[in-house]
Fold each of these.
Amino acid sequence: MISTSRFIEACWGRPHDKVPVWFMRQAGRYQDGYRKLRQQYSFLEMAHNPDICTEVSCRPVEELGVDAAILFSDIMIPLGPMGVDFEIREHFGPVIAHPVRTGRDLKQLRVLEPEDDLPEVFEAIEKICERLGAIPLIGFAGAPFTLASYLIEGGPSKNYLHTKRLMWEQPEVWRQLMDVLADATVRHLSAQVRHGAQAVQVFDSWIGALPVDDYRKYVMPSMRAVFAKLNALQVPTIYFGTGTASLLHAMKETGPTVLGVDWRTPIRQARSTVGSEVTLQGNLDPMTLVCEWDIVKEHSTAILQDMLGDPAFIFNLGHGVPPEAHPDNLKRLVEWVHQFPGTPASQ
Ligand code: CP3
């Protein structure tokens, strides 16, 4: 299929008309419509209902004019059919009933069979793609480290005490856990691509907890395997994490098409760290979105100027849209980004 999407072209570093833009967590509580639906359904009910999932995934494209949709789901969803009992607590995050701490706990995880285990997700993907037409859908999954951190800690964490302890004290159990989770990530994303996703993003949100030497030793092998398999699908792959200033080069070496940058690293610094071979995605501080438009404009313009003329750039936030964001800021921001050319006028 020949793609004309500016988002897909930028992923491959090819010329395109305007700087593409989408937002992590572009579907969420900052939207009136989303909050209304959430009064009737739990988050998990919404994510498992193909019609609601389609509606919620497509609305940001229709309301904001972003250049891509992202599947409305969660990194935890595939863990359910793998045998993990969890809930998602509002304003807190995922909570796991029986954390994984030993080799025996690990043996209880079963292999993900995406289409059999989560047919509603793939039904939603097909519906979304049909409704979006030429706008691409980004599929996503959690990365092994970030999934492991929830499984081992039992919920969100500040210091990743149990995760690091398992990683260092039981390296063989850790390696097996990384393999099991990497396999699930690849299976889930491959199925999403089979059903119509045109790009995939791997969320390693909490990878910044590791120093680079530990990243290379304990995480990089599984990420290399993930991207080797995903890249064979011939869709762009995006690798995102936060707190990654010292990890960006190693993350790039794992082989994604696009590297997501959080707001702490100046985007020009990220570019000089990783070289020109990889597309960069980011990295407006999400907290600007709760301020007046002038603040959003000032911070976004600095990023756009740093990346002016770089065809391998996708505008996004440095992390997800906060629930307190003003919807108007997001709408204006899309218009503002679209005023910037995707490649130098001379090309
Ligand atoms: O970007 C999108 O619009 C797609 C939807 C999406 C969600 N979760 C929906 C969601 C994506 C890509 C995710 C991934 C995810 N989930 C990550 C990686 C990205 C990131 O933000 O770092 C992580 C770490 C999770 C785990 C998780 N799930 C957290 C930390 C929370 C937030 C808890 C809260 O109430 O603030 C969730 C719940 C969740 N996932 C919500 C949404 C819209 C909020 C649910 C609600 O109460 O309506």
Amino acid sequence: MSSRTLFSEADHRYMARALQLAKRGLYTTDPNPRVGCVIVQQLPGQSGRIVGEGFHLRTGEPHAEIHALNAAGEHAKGATAYVTLEPCSHTGRTGPCAVALANAQVARVVVAMVDPNPQVSGRGIELLKAAGIEVDVGLLEADARALNPGFIARMQHKRPFVRLKMAMSLDGRTAMGSGESQWITGQEARCHVQRLRARSSAILSGVESIIMDDSRLTLRAEQLQLENAESVVLRQPLRVILDTRLRLPLAAACLSEPGRTLVMTTPAHSPEKRAKLTAAGAEVHVFEAGSDGRLPLNELLDWLAKHEQVNELLVETGATLAGALLDAKLVDELQLFVAPTLLGGEAKPLFALPGLSRMADQRRLKIHDIRAVGSDWRIIATPQPD
Ligand code: AOF
Ligand code: ZN
């Protein structure tokens, strides 16, 4: 939502601070959004003073505004609250923050973005206005949206934000002809991938890559290099494996790791294997295959949003599934790690996109960021609409 309000330099500074606070919940709020709040007291003739700060830490715990109000106490009266997401108007796991702000008699609320949650979506702002509070919306909105791409996608489109991570050599290869692929990128790039896993609700992979790499698809806290490691309780992202005929080995490493493993299959599987996989800890779900005999990717993503509240979905897989997702236009963001090495020979290419044959078919990407990560390069790109 855009706003015609002219925000002051101080407004920008305080909202930037609120965004910074929100980021502290990056790895823990899921499936709730990351939200930060700053309360500023403005005394006549003096510059503003922060009297309360807060951020949302975990689902079920108080919202950012409540922490900030508690810290501000009496000083909240007549103050300005900066919130990265519209204060809520509903009573969910916690009470409505818009009511708490009104009760504390703040004079003004600055909101970075309207809450995409249909239970809120403008009602929080209305509630504040009805209480006589001045409300300004849209300050640093792009930054606020970037904090919660998954929550926004799930609320607005009922599907996760799909981030495809791939690692390739400078000659565009992801594995040797034999399938051997560990390791193409260096340690620092692998730390980045750990951070991508940590912010994701789930990791999606194809059974072929699991068979090939026997990857655990887990979060290793020590590799995250967190500053506040002791105060962050990490959850393991859900592992989701696409496996049309249940070929997942019973001894697959990911099955004995902490956290849940969902195996998505079609009716073309053997019931005995299903029973064995279930006994080994997998949760097997059956989807009707499409006309090509493959799992219906669209439906699967909708299912993950609806049944598992998946906000950000990290895809770590091989050329076939990566190509199929791109082909179906289901990728929201591509993170590509490029290593300074050549694999040559019969090595595997990045994507299988067999349907593209003419220049007119090419898939255009927009590059948003390129930076060095250790000795590798990271490219962040988004597929462009036709
Ligand atoms: C948060 N943290 O700081 C704010 C949120 O289930 P509940 O009761 O915690 O409510 C979650 C909803 O509250 C969430 O979907 C969003 O719409 C709204 N605002 N949520 O988790 C916060 N301010
Ligand atoms: Zn709230």
Amino acid sequence: DTGDVSLNGFDHYMLKEIYEQPESIRNAMRGRLDDQDATAVFGGLNLTPQQLRSVERIVLTGCGTSWHSALVGEYLIEELARIPVSVEYASELRYRNPPMENNTLVFGITQSGETADTLAALRETKRKGHRTLAICNVVASSIAQAADGGVYLHAGPEIGVASTKAYTSQCCVLAMLALYFGRTRHMSYEGGKRLIEELRRLPAAVQQALTTDEQVRDVAKKYCNATNFLYLGRQYNFPTALEGALKLKEISYIHAEGYPAAEMKHGPIALVDKDTPSLFIVPRGTTHDKVMANMEEVKARGGPIIAVASHDDPHIEAIADDVIRVPSVQEFLQPIVTVVPLQLLSYHIALLRGCDVDKPRNLAKSVTVE
Ligand code: AGP
């Protein structure tokens, strides 16, 4: 159901939604960055200062793309707020019954707010006395109503079955939550200020990443007949590899595996041959050189390499066959930028293969059955 949402001149909702990201990220941040106290503010979390200080663990749960944003959130919250985080598939959490500390906050992450497994996981943890919160796009949806409080994404309607703008908004909200929790603990005033500045740079950086579109289309032409793809990234961009692979699977029906780049040598490297492209997410940052070494390993085995790299990295062309350059932001925010060309790549490959981009086979926009 597209309601009365217009395509606004775009050929598909997915492409329109990819292009809306500078604006949807801006909307996720609107009114939530507090310069005076160098923190984030959330109207709907409903946490008392006492509850806030006593949080011992945060559980992030969701399905599919929303589970990938949870993985990004795990890095952000653990690094910036030093609170232990567990990421759980909602469909597993509801049956796994893990022991949880008394002061555990459970966040259900969901675009639609109607995913049956996420709703059930929140209900089950709430029944056990944990505080449940929703990070959700659709206002007044079932999950938004079932939770004790939450944060809306304000991304606007997402019609394409493949989630794009909801994902970057989820990551952005999780970064603001990391700021919020961090400022009640170890993060300094200056640290909070710096993070706010970095967050404010995101819409422009994503806008810049969208200018890769034409180049990404050329890369798509080169590889659209592949039957297997590897997506490899490390640390903050390991979830980006999973998300890029999921996007490709969903709408182009090409088999793709996302892996932490260093895990490759423990198995997936056996898949590498001249017909299996490997897409590396390798922006500047702590693990850059290690990922470059992983790229060398693939190259030595004759595998074609596509790299998503920083705008000013002089070493990539020597190894990669195709280089897509994105602007640099603070490294733990980089996934919000690096995912953009991966969304575009899946879009163009699906189009070239004649697939129905907005309504891929076998998939529904929200999965309301178990
Ligand atoms: C995303 O591209 C998928 N269509 C799917 O994985 C989706 O993210 C998942 O079903 C969860 O949906 P939700 O965010 O609405 O809960």
